[in-house]
């Protein structure tokens, strides 16, 4: 089998999720980043037109969860991403869905409302393009993401309420990790990888949230192991 190719956007937590899943399985892979001008090629990679996309074993698979499931099917003898036991697998999938469909929107919210994080996203999005495009893209990106947040619900809430609710989620994670090494069972799973990649992106780009995350010791110790 030729080396898999991960087509990704560098700051996407879902692309990072796939990269961590490949590493968890011990699979060597290559990366193609679609930052800046290369972003125009993304719609050609799949019918959905989004990243991540993985070329592997003659297949082209889109969506981080579908990719993770396929990796377990293709490499059943490598460390598993999903437990084989039904209840544990269900618990893992619940954590993964919570991360992908709920926690993700906090990452978007803090990116939009943190000038440093937003500037970082704009810099990567306009890589290779004229400098003036950065000035044009920043308000456009903020408007587009803000509209998504409004429809999702977080954009209609007061900033203090959003932060307070996010801190509650961090405290719940801290409590779980006080009693357990991993989110589910005794081994790292896609649950740990999915949640950690969302939080790692906040650590990387959002200065205010970095302080909130790093002060929770169990959470930080877990992140370092994931």
UniProtKB/TrEMBL annotation:
Listed InterPro entries: Glutathione-S-Trfase_C-like, Glutathione-S-Trfase_C_sf, Glutathione_S-Trfase, Glutathione_S-Trfase_N, GST_Omega/HSP26, Thioredoxin-like_sf
Residue span(s) of domain GST C-terminal: 85-226
UniProt GO molecular function: transferase activity
Highest taxon, organism lineage: Bacteria
Positions of the GST N-terminal domain: 2-79
Matches recorded under PROSITE patterns: GST_CTER, GST_NTER
GO cellular component, one term: cytoplasm
Keywords associated with the record: Transferase
Pfam family, one: GST_C_2
Name of the featured protein: Glutathione S-transferase
């Amino acid at each position: 089998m030729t080396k898999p190719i991960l087509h990704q956007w560098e700051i996407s937590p879902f692309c990072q999720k796939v990269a961590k899943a490949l590493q968890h399985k011990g699979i060597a892979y290559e990366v193609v980043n679609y930052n800046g001008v290369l972003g125009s090629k993304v719609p050609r990679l799949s019918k959905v037109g989004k990243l991540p996309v993985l070329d592997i074993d003659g297949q082209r698979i889109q969506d981080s969860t579908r990719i993770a499931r396929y990796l377990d099917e293709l490499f059943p003898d490598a460390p598993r991403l999903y437990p084989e036991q039904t209840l544990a697998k269900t618990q893992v999938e619940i954590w993964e869905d919570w991360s992908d469909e709920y926690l993700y929107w906090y990452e978007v919210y803090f990116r939009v409302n943190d000038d440093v994080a937003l500037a970082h996203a704009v810099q990567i999005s306009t890589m290779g393009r004229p400098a003036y495009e950065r000035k044009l893209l920043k308000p456009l990106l903020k408007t587009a993401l803000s509209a998504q947040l409004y429809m999702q619900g977080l954009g209609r809430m007061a900033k203090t309420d959003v932060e307070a609710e996010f801190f509650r989620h961090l405290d719940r994670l801290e409590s779980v990790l006080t009693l357990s090494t991993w989110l589910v069972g005794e081994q790292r799973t896609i649950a740990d990888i999915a949640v950690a990649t969302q939080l790692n992106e906040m650590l990387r780009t959002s200065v205010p949230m970095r302080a909130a995350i790093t002060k929770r010791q169990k959470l930080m110790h877990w992140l370092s192991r994931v």
